[in-house]
Amino acid sequence: MLGRLNIGKHLAAAALVLASQLATAADRAHVVVLATGGTIAGAGAEAANSATYQAAKVPVDKLIAGIPELAKVADVSGEQVFQIASESFTNNNLMALGRRVSALVKDSKVDGIVITHGTDTLEETAFFLNLVIHSDKPIVVVGSMRPGTAISADGALNLLDAVTVAANPQARGRGVMVVMNDQIDAARDVSKTINIKTNAFVSQWGALGMIVEGKSYWFRKIDKKHTLTSDFDIDRLKELAPVEIAYSYGNVSKTAYEAFAASGAKAIIHAGTGNGSVADRMVPVLRGLQDKGVQIIRSARVWGGFVLRNAEQPDDKYGWIVAHDLNPQKARILAAVAIASGYDAAALQKAFWEY
Ligand code: DGL
Fold this sequence. Notes:
By secondary structure, this protein is α/β, with parallel strands linked by helices. 33% of the residues lie in helices and 19% in strands. It has helices spanning 2-27, 60-65, 70-73, 91-105, 122-132, 155-166, 255-262, 283-291, 315-318, 328-340, 345-354; strands at 30-37, 75-84, 112-116, 139-142, 177-180, 183-186, 190-192, 201-203, 209-212, 215-218, 243-247, 267-272, 295-300, 321-322. It is elongated.
């Protein structure tokens, strides 16, 4: 009799544990990890190779399996969307990824999305999604500066932090975020400022918050349009408009600008010196391109600050646009989305003030 009672007690205890595990699993957010490649999926020959490695080698299921702590923060599933180094991204990759994200955010069983990505163009993809995905669900883009095979690799903790933020209801409605190096940054603000250090990603107006040992600490929200407040929508976009970037410098010539226009560019981002300055000899060239219908958008090769309208250049007179605080690579993304959405010069300038 006593034996039966003991077995009964053990069965009851096991049932309780199972029930609590099932309840926890049911309570846990469902986060989908969309893998695209990059260093976070990279592999080097030796543990000392923190900068010499091949990107885009490790598949998403191996990335997830390599971090058992993920199961404590969310119910995680993975999809391998691409397996490429991010310098090889194209507009078509952006559109395909955007369409997959748009489909997933409409799924009531999905609570958050993480995109693993190479760091080279990570800020461009994050900003693109920030403009075209209509959802307040957390969308987090994450990468790493060292491959998982390296001593003091940063990818595993970055991915754990990214999934933790994506599973956090407090992260809703903040726009697309980038989580790396314990920091939570806004997609529209952050950029890769250093090419081989783990603290590469910096937002000139400051991070949104930090994540430390699984707890998120929030310090600000974005005062710009994004996601649910955006006028753009991936579901209404067929493709991105062709927009190119011309880097300016002493002795700059018209060759690149005219070649871009001849190739069909709808806009050229002028990555100008200083405050988006234009060399005297280039003013008639850019005005001529503007007259032919190529939008001229003045950004700057300088990392910080923002390009002032009608300061050193009479933008009103020339019909030029200023990119405000967006760097050339982000200005290209906004122009490509806006022009593809039918925006003219006036609407485009308004968009650069608003997003
Ligand atoms: N090839 C670069 C990329 O995929 C590696 C840089 C990285 O992912 O950190 O963006």
